[in-house]
Structure to design on (822 residues):
């Protein structure tokens, strides 16, 4: 663990020994002392060790920064991460002149000592996961190269830190702060973007902070989201006909009192909900709409469907959002008393729900801490700490009648007050240099002057060239800010730019609603009907026959599979209804038999669908999966066939195919349970299917189960949310001939690593892996260490090291888990 090169007699290791005080037997000449993972609350007596060059006190319970540290003048490396330190006294760092490496992450620091910059040798400084509001004291550290300040309460970074000449910073990580200056999107681009931002600020300062609020309207179907959205925009009630259901997402803008609102109205039906993750971005204002007239205080399901489901999903996906509850249809309630009763009931239940979640996480933390070997769970404990730090703000419910003008006005001013209150909505303002504003204005101007096509799809490079005609900026200056600006505009909902998808990163969608319209043509509750309605002419354009249409309809209905030719027809029809004579655009979006279009790339990227070969039998010749072996041939090649078909798990109706192939569970099946905390998010399993199946040449899928096959070995993945603690089970079956036993575990591990990659898309989620104890009648599980490491660890060693003991005291033979040892 210690990077310094110390001879063994100078190194003293007393880590992980549950010590509450410094051990007596540490030799005075010790150079490197490892005390991590103990139970120290104070560090008294450390000043005797004046030869120490390095000390590791991480993962203890220290509450005060040890004052005696100032005596350790030879100290070069100091680890104090994962403690409970709240403050650091003055007069310590000026004595630590040789200190190069300082790790103080995961503490409770609110302030830095003003003299920290007198510790002039510091090269590496980790202050992430604290509560710091200001890091100005760091200005003046001449050798600082790497600065980590993620997940604090910083609203600004000191510009002096990034001026050439005053410091040598080459790495700065500052995500997870309510930053305004520079905004977080700048920090996401790394040190060069931050430097460029401050340079622009110097050249084109702006004191105005741009207040743009992405407002997402969520809630059940018919709750009144579109009505709210349109009424707010018009400042008076706008009636929405019952048959005028939102499909996908509708976007509109409102300028009010210097604030720009971007309203994203999400359709409430389930089919649409499963694509929302494509468009939900963090730190938005969420208006959760509840129809109060149909809400029941006595039926628990009512709260569950109308509120719990939504808050839970928001919490799992964007845990740092602010949720404003709005109760509609008040006029259809009996009287004011009923409205108030429902309001109180909802608020009370929301409070209980949030408190319960917290309690579950805390209990889970205690369970892990009390385990025989808590150090195995260090990473999971950190993750739980992170979840506990997230604080979804749910504001009180505002009851309104959408048909009354006073109520619409009341809601508008309520929203204004909420976002202007800093404590509620920290993220609404970003301070941008004037040049950024000019570039954004230019983009809008170009669009309204039709220099950017109406559909808004344009290459980043072409956009850059057009902007240069409107804004007086050098090509280099524009180049240095354009990517940030696109990232920023994407986050606030003005444009859509999928920077992370390599096939699309060179394209910007200036008009997000166009993109959504394309989505709507495929992801919709009545897709079967749409497909049935495809005309002969449209079929001919694609070179298809009426007979084929019936096959498509049948495959979609029975197997949740949509042929790409059918997809092309539906999307083309959707586009042509909007835009005429844009053949190139149609090809770009829809694709051809040989080349995948934008829409298919997006649907696959966001795991809405999985390219698939339907059916297939066991193939004993299929290559064995060897983790880490890049040469392994998976279904990937078949995957990107634009003339193939795609499986849409959202359209799957049952599990019959899987049940039929798998039969009954067997006693000697190996099984692993992955528990998700606080629960498995809605739509998660669909994406599990998409991710895992894409790895295997042969698979069968059902609504909550999928069966994978590699060679002649079978692996079943299924969701179980019927028990109190929901889990995903991975069951693997011995083949008749035993020679492939090792691969069973490989299959399991491969599926698990996919599961964990996927679970990272839900920042409000954590998971734990268990293997049920095979001892007859034993209800306990073997708990595994954190599997997140799977991707970057040699997991053969990881598994080998495990000594699995269940709470009933049974040990599991490791060779059963890892037969390579035999
Ligand atoms: N009387 C009354 N009717 C309302 C109120 N709010 C909404 N409505 C009506 O309820 C119906 C559904 O409203 P929408 O705004 O379309 O609901 P939505 O949540 O957007 O529904 P989806 O598009 O399916 O997601 C419409 O006919 C509205 O006019 C209200 O406060 N009072």
């Amino acid at each position: 663990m210690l990077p310094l090169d110390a001879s063994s007699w100078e190194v003293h290791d007393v880590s992980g020994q549950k010590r509450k005080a410094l051990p007596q037997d540490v030799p005075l000449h010790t150079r490197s002392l490892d005390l991590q993972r103990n139970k120290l609350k104070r560090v008294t007596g450390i000043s005797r060790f004046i030869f120490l060059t390095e000390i590791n006190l991480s993962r203890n319970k220290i509450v005060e920064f040890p004052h005696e540290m100032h005596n350790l003048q030879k100290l070069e490396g100091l680890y104090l991460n994962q403690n409970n330190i709240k403050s650091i006294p003055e007069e310590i760092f000026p004595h630590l002149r040789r200190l190069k490496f300082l790790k103080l992450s995961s503490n409770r620091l609110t302030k830095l000592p003003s003299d920290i910059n007198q510790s002039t040798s510091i090269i590496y400084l980790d202050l992430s996961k604290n509560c710091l509001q200001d890091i100005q004291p760091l200005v003046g550290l001449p050798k600082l190269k790497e600065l980590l300040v993620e997940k604090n309460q910083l609203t600004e970074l000191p510009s002096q830190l990034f001026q050439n000449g005053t410091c040598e910073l080459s790495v700065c990580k500052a995500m997870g702060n309510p930053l305004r200056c520079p905004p977080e999107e700048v920090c996401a681009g790394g040190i060069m973007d931050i430097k460029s931002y401050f340079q622009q600020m110097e050249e084109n300062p702006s004191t105005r902070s741009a207040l743009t609020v992405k407002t997402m309207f969520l809630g059940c179907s018919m709750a009144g989201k579109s009505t709210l959205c349109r009424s707010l925009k018009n400042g008076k009630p706008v009636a929405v006909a019952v048959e005028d259901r939102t499909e996908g997402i509708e976007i509109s803008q409102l300028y009010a009192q210097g604030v720009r609102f971007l309203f994203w109205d999400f359709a409430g039906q389930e089919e649409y909900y499963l694509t929302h993750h494509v468009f939900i971005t963090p730190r938005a204002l969420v208006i959760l709409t509840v129809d109060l007239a149909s809400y029941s205080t006595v039926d628990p399901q009512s709260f569950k469907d109308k509120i719990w489901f939504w808050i839970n999903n928001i919490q799992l996906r964007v845990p740092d959002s602010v949720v404003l509850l709005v109760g509609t249809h008040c006029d259809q309630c009996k009287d004011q008393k009923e409205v108030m009763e429902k309001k109180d009931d909802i608020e009370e239940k929301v409070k209980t729900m949030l408190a319960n979640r917290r309690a579950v996480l805390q209990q889970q933390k205690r369970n892990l801490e009390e385990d025989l070997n808590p150090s195995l769970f260090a990473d999971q404990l950190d993750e739980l700490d992170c979840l506990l730090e997230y604080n979804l703000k749910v504001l009180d419910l505002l009851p309104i009648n959408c048909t009354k003008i006073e109520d619409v006005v009341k809601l508008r001013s309520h929203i204004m007050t909420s976002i202007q209150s800093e404590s509620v909505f920290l993220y609404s303002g970003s301070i941008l240099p004037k040049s950024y504003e000019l570039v954004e204005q230019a983009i809008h101007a170009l669009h309204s002057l039709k220099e950017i096509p109406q559909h808004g799809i344009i290459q980043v490079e072409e956009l850059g060239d057009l902007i240069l005609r409107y804004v007086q900026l050098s090509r280099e200056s524009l180049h240095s800010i354009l990517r940030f600006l696109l990232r920023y505009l994407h986050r606030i909902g003005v444009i859509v730019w999928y920077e992370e998808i390599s096939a699309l990163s060179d394209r910007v969608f200036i008009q997000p609603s166009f993109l959504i319209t394309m989505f709507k043509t495929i992801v919709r509750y009545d897709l079967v009907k749409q497909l049935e309605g495809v005309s002969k002419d449209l079929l001919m354009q694609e070179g298809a026959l009426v007979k084929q249409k019936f096959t498509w309809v049948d495959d979609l209905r029975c197997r949740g599979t949509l042929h790409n030719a059918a997809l092309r027809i539906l999307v083309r029809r959707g586009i042509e209804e909007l835009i005429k004579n844009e053949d190139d655009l149609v090809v770009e979006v829809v694709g051809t038999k040989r080349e995948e279009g934008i829409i298919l790339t997006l649907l696959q990227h966001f795991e809405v669908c999985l390219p698939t070969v339907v059916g297939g039998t066991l193939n004993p010749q299929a290559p064995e999966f060897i983790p880490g072996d890049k040469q392994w041939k998976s279904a990937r090649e078949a995957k990107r066939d634009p003339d193939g078909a795609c499986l849409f798990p959202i359209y799957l109706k049952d599990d019959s195919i899987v049940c039929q192939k798998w039969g009954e569970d067997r006693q000697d099946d190996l099984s692993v349970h992955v528990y998700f905390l606080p629960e498995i998010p809605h739509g998660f399993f669909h994406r599990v299917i998409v991710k895992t199946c894409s790895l295997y040449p042969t698979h069968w899928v059902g609504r909550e189960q999928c069966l994978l096959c590699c060679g002649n070995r079978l692996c079943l993945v299924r969701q179980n949310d019927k028990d109190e603690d929901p889990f995903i089970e991975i069951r693997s079956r011995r083949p008749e001939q035993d020679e492939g036993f090792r691969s069973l575990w490989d299959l399991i591990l491969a599926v698990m690593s996919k599961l964990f990659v996927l679970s990272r898309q839900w920042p409000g989620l954590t998971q734990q892996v268990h293997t049920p104890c095979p001892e007859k009648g034993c209800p306990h599980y073997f708990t595994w260490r954190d599997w997140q490491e799977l991707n970057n660890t040699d997991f053969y060693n990881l598994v080998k090291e495990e000594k699995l003991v269940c709470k009933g005291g049974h040990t599991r033979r490791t060779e059963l888990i890892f037969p390579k040892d035999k």
